[in-house]
């Protein structure tokens, strides 16, 4: 390893490599839908998995673990995913490598908790395809590829790919990264307007409690879209003020990467009581206290108070 590479914090290097890996995974996801062969199975009740989920996870974990063999990687689709990605790798669908962290200028300000991270400290939460229920129906805009990084139980970095992101009617995809306390890239972060309360929530996993809690924050407008990653991107871009989901269902791989990106852009993601989720390797996978995320972290306490007033 060169001296320069040796000085670059491990977290920066793994986020950079992951952005390239997520670019390729986005190509895999697009290729599967182009082929028309999704090979959908239901892992439970309304809990779908397609060939794209399997192949993208296999690619992400195989590649990342070969580069960083000491990290712990936990993927949504489990440890025994053998779906081949060979025929799904293409050069025509690769998006530009996302903007990398400018290490030379950022390095002076790297917080100690980031600089001190060792490979064996990292737990990587991989959701190869978030928004599968919609993807299986051909609703693709909200599909994301999520790779979150945690140390000591905290979400410390995230990479999110959006394979069907459109620019001027052309599907280009995009890749976004965020490291709280360091920065973010790949997205134009904006605060939502203050004069209107736009709330985003599930499109496909609602029930009466989800609706009651949603009503408690008195939305002016509700955006019902698929995917935890996509809903958080709506917050980062100022298209929604809060993401409210009062139900178990989302899991650690759904929230780890979005939490880091949201935090890096001034927002906050917690359970409905305002408590941060833990991301250590032995944690329970289900986020059973729901999701409350705000574009502006200063609003968070107000939402916690509102939702706490809804009877169980
Ligand atoms: N009841 C559930 N069963 C399985 N996955 C769920 C459930 N609820 C939420 N999820 C996961 O959380 C994401 C956000 O939820 P929603 O889209 O309903 O807002 C979903 O895209 C899905 O991730 P995935 O698509 O990766 O399986
Ligand atoms: Mg799933
Ligand atoms: Mg998911
Ligand atoms: Mg998934």
Automatic annotation (TrEMBL):
<feature type="binding site">
    <location>
        <position position="254"/>
    </location>
    <ligand>
        <name>Mg(2+)</name>
    </ligand>
</feature>
<dbReference type="InterPro" id="IPR050725">
    <property type="entry name" value="CysQ/Inositol_MonoPase"/>
</dbReference>
<dbReference type="GO" id="GO:0046872">
    <property type="term" value="F:metal ion binding"/>
</dbReference>
<dbReference type="GO" id="GO:0046854">
    <property type="term" value="P:phosphatidylinositol phosphate biosynthetic process"/>
</dbReference>
<feature type="binding site">
    <location>
        <position position="130"/>
    </location>
    <ligand>
        <name>Mg(2+)</name>
    </ligand>
</feature>
<keyword id="KW-0460">Magnesium</keyword>
<dbReference type="GO" id="GO:0005737">
    <property type="term" value="C:cytoplasm"/>
</dbReference>
<keyword id="KW-0479">Metal-binding</keyword>
<keyword id="KW-0378">Hydrolase</keyword>
<dbReference type="Pfam" id="PF00459">
    <property type="entry name" value="Inositol_P"/>
</dbReference>
<dbReference type="InterPro" id="IPR020583">
    <property type="entry name" value="Inositol_monoP_metal-BS"/>
</dbReference>
<keyword id="KW-0452">Lithium</keyword>
<feature type="binding site">
    <location>
        <position position="129"/>
    </location>
    <ligand>
        <name>Mg(2+)</name>
    </ligand>
</feature>
<dbReference type="GO" id="GO:0008441">
    <property type="term" value="F:3'(2'),5'-bisphosphate nucleotidase activity"/>
</dbReference>
<dbReference type="GO" id="GO:0004441">
    <property type="term" value="F:inositol-1,4-bisphosphate 1-phosphatase activity"/>
</dbReference>
<protein>
    <recommendedName>
        <fullName>3'(2'),5'-bisphosphate nucleotidase 1</fullName>
        <ecNumber>3.1.3.57</ecNumber>
        <ecNumber>3.1.3.7</ecNumber>
    </recommendedName>
</protein>
<feature type="binding site">
    <location>
        <position position="127"/>
    </location>
    <ligand>
        <name>Mg(2+)</name>
    </ligand>
</feature>
<feature type="binding site">
    <location>
        <position position="76"/>
    </location>
    <ligand>
        <name>Mg(2+)</name>
    </ligand>
</feature>
<dbReference type="InterPro" id="IPR000760">
    <property type="entry name" value="Inositol_monophosphatase-like"/>
</dbReference>
<dbReference type="InterPro" id="IPR020550">
    <property type="entry name" value="Inositol_monophosphatase_CS"/>
</dbReference>
<comment type="similarity">
    <text>Belongs to the inositol monophosphatase superfamily.</text>
</comment>
